[in-house]
Every structure is written in structure tokens, then in C-alpha cells.
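An instance follows:
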Amino acid sequence: MTVRSLRPHRDDVLLAALSVAVGVLLWSLGVYSTGNRYFLPAWAALVPLFALGAMELLRRSAPSVTLGVGTVGLIADQFTVGSAATVLIFTDLMYAAVVYGKPSMARRLPVTTGLITLAVTFASLVWLRTPQALLIGVITGIVSFGPALTGATLRNHREAAVAARLRAEQTALLAEMDRTQAVAAERARMARELHDMVANHLSAIAIHSTAALSIDSPATSRDALGVIRENSVQGLAEMRRLIGLLRDAGAGSEAVATPSLDGLEALLGQARANGRASGLDCVLHDDRPPGPSLPAPVELAAYRIVQESLTNALKHAVPGTVTVRVARTGPLLTVAVDSPYGDRPGPRAPGSGAGLIGMRERTELLGGEFAAGPAGPVLPAGPARTVWRVRAALPAEERMVTG
């Protein structure tokens, strides 16, 4: 033990001083506890009193030592005129040994003192064979078993309170982690929605405005301005819808995603209008069997993947045909978008790669598989041309992936 750990507590100093003062006062007034059963002079009763009083200073820092010294002092006190203060100090040392001692001592002392109390009671009855013999057992229990049991009860309550506090802190920590993850997931979802809804319109605006500035033709400029206006209005409407959904969600209602696979024809029609100036055409092959609609998150993810793939084609594809295929194969909904890939002249809209990240995130959140990249020459009917293929396999039943 360090010197710092042996420094007595302020309350222990006051308790020791008060106990010794009361003991000295009782001794000076001739108030003894053992009556005529003593073998040493009267002043000898002060030795156990001062020894146990000194142990009060160490009742928190060295409980096992104080209990050992206290036991010896209590036995020695029985050979003197005796002091009630010495007995009371011993009961406090027993209590402190259970409260501040090692867990093994706290478990052992109530059992040990209980057995000692029973043994003393039985031995007194056998030896004295009088009803007064029971009083010896009661006093033994009050001096030893009672303080040990009280200390064990208090310690159990303290340990239960500490365990409950730790559980509460862990629960609060887990709740904060869940909240942080939920906020991050919601921010990522909002980012995907904002990107997928607005990027298509802004890409068309960027390409056609560049074309209007680059090509000195009134007809071209007029067509480009028409496309720009149309996409501006639609983009503004999408932004207003998203803001409305976010406000409704903040007010306590759930924001419902409206786009579904039934809107693919309209989506491709818009893409044809936006890509006409770049020589792009769009074709849809919907091979889904008739039947009930898929879960809303699955249809939303498929719709957004097609939408973002068309946006990327508008930005980067060379003139040709963009083919969109949607099919239901067993438990999977497959979405494939093939677009002509290569270097092209004319204006391009800048890309950040966020679209591919968003498509991959949407697919993985539903437990599906996603792939995107060049697929090699696949146009045997015409000149061989490399295509950029986006493919997503989504579970036909919603199965959100966590972790």
C-alpha cells in the first residue's frame, strides 16, 4: 500500500477521537463492562481501548488488519475491567471489514460470525445450563454477526447500484451509437435521393447550355433553351417534393418514396428528349411477369438505378442506343442498362462518381449485388462497340442489410 492510500479519512479521524474520548470518560467514571471478572488492574482496560481507537483510522484502507487487531483487543478487554466503548469500536471494525474489505472477506465474515454465534450459544448452554446462557449468544451475535450482516447488506446494495449505473451508461452509449448510425444512414439516404432526383436535370441543363453557347445556330439554341427550361421546371418540382417529404418526416409522418417501376416509360421518354441533341436513343425491355407490385424500397432502388444510369449515359455516352432491361427471375429483380461507351466529341457534364456510389449503396442495403464497368464489344448487328454496363440484382422481397 502507498502512503497516500493509508491516509485516514476525515470521518474516521473524528470517529476514532470520539470513541476514545467516550471510553476514557466511562473509565474515569468507573463504568465497566465485565464487573468482577477481571485479572488485571483497572488502567489495563485503556490499552485495548487505545489500540482499537487507533485501528479506526485504518478502517477503510486496511480493514483486514484492523479486524485482526480488533479481535485480539476485544479478547484482551475481557481480562480487564472492560469498556463498553471498546466493544462498540470492535462492532464498527467488523462492519467496516465487510464494507471496505475484499469481496472474499465480505462473503466470508457473515457466515463465519454466524457460525461462531451459534457455537458460543450452544457451548454456553452446555456449560452453564441456565437460561442466562442464551444472553451470551445474543451478545456475541450483536457484537459480531449483526455488524457483519449489516455491512454485507449495505455492500450488496452498493454493488447493485453500481451495476445498475453501469448498465444505464452502457444503454445510453448504445442508444447514442444507434442514434449516430441512424443519423448517418438518413443523411446518406437524403444524399442519394437528392443526387438521383436532381442530377439528371442538372446534367441535361449543363450539356444543352454548353451546346447553345458552342454552336452558333438559332434553331439549336432554341431547342437547347427548351430542354433547359423543361429540366429546370422538373428539377425544381423534384426539389420541392423532396423538401416537402423531409418536412413531413420531421413533423412525425413517414416520408414515402413515390417513384416506381411503372414510371420507367416516362423516365426514358424524358431521357430521349434530353439526349436527342447528343445522338442518344433509349429503349426499354420490361420482361417482368404480370402480378402484384414489388416492395416499395425495391422498386424505388430499381427506378433510381435506371435514372442514374441514364444520367451517366447523358453525360458520358457516345451516340447510339441506351438499352434498359428489367426482368424478374425467381427471387431476384434484375436491372441492366447498356450504353455506348467511348470518347465522344462535344460538351460533357462533369462527374464526381457519387452516382455509382449511390447505386451500389442502394443495392447493398437491400442485400443485392451490383456491378458497373465496360462490357466489351456486344453489338454484332452493327459495328462492334464497347458498352458500359450497369447491372443490379435486387431481392424481389425487401431484405434490409444492417451492420
